[in-house]
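Q: My collaborator sent me two sequences in one message, no labels, and asked for predicted structures for both. Can we handle them in order? The first one she listed is below.
A: Yes, handling them in the order given. First sequence, followed by its structure tokens:
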Amino acid sequence: MRTRSAWIMYGLVLVTGGLFAVVWLVLTVRDADAVAGRQGGSTALSIALLVGVAVHLTLLALIIFVPPAFPAREVMITTDIPLAVILFALELVIVVIINSRLRSVMTLPPQTANTLLFVFFTLTMFISLMLLQQRLNKLAARNELP
């Protein structure tokens, strides 16, 4: 596991309009699995998120470039809206998983208020990723993880 500058990573999220948050989320869940001693525990979620985002971006490009009179455009729009909601819910689930894994490694009891706070910070432009990255960096420095 590499330590990453939370500020640089968050700067990339802001510069890319939030798209880099998906990559950072995948990296963070992988690091949280490593810290917790789990091998590939969230690989399926990460792959689902990346594939879903690729499909979402493809649908957005098609919606933008297909003429409004084209009948399939409405189908693309009605497909993309639920997909976007599902992807955002998946991002929230992954943030909760990362938080719970880090809390268990730090031997902290699960707290609903803490989990809700991280969900709130995710809703506010992924601030929670910066907080989780700082926790991961502290754990890595304390345990001298690779």
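Q: And the one she listed second?
A: Here it is, processed independently of the first:
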Amino acid sequence: MSITPGYKDKRKFIMMALKRPEDTKGTDYIANGATPVAILTTGLAVNPYQSEQITRDLDDGKSGGQPVIQTGERITITAPVEWAGSGAATTPAAWSKLIQLAARDETVNTSDVTHERILSASNELDGTVYFYWEGMWHILLAGKASLTTAGKMGELPKITVEIQGIYGDTVSGTPPAANFSAFQQPLPFSKANTSFTLDGQALNLYEYELADNNSIEHDEGTEINQIFIDDWSEEGKFIIEAPALSTFDPFALIRASAIVPFEITHGTVAGKIVKQSSTGIQLLGIQPSPQKGKQGWDISFRVIRGNDSTLTTA
């Protein structure tokens, strides 16, 4: 084998499988027989090996660097996906399995599919992810994730999924063929495609971001080696054109510690609609953010417990 094979950095993709009832938690679900799905990403990245290092501090009469032993081996994969529907209102989007790593469920309703926060750790799903590169692949086990949803006017909205897992292996070989046909063409954030309300008031939105801020821990004991979501505190921002205060007064809401709803709807045709909403957020702060010469506000906010955000496709 050549020491300079010329592997291409862009030749990379991921495939994943969620834990099935018959699987032993934290094992390789794909190797166990689960059917993996390919995930179409944009800006895929991997930190292929992370660990804690135990220095041995040997009393051997020698000076210099001490040998170490690796422990707590982990891997992190960052997988941004385009925020698009499935093509049919009641069919889960092709990225649905990926976001279930972030303590989200999947419920198919009569007219849409919703993904809500799972509140009981025993009901959360973890997953196996294979990060394929030309010539090799990295294996992530027991994966859990944190989501960041973001959109900006004139750009494609995305959900960035940061997956943390236990290091499974790095294996030499040829990646399989990947089928991305279930992924739909996204729509740009625009007046035609996107609408936004805050406290029931339609506002002129320019940019949006909401991060799960999941606190993810590597939990290893004598009986278990897992990735565990300890807590979360969703926070984000809206950048809007400043309306007349008689229409919408963010200062009054901040000073009153008011808890208000928001909803972003992107897409107008069944099968292409994606939404994110919460029944209760608190505005935290406000800063000027001029937009094309007009007054604008950069408003930070937090989702208040009991009002966790919901992702919907319709």
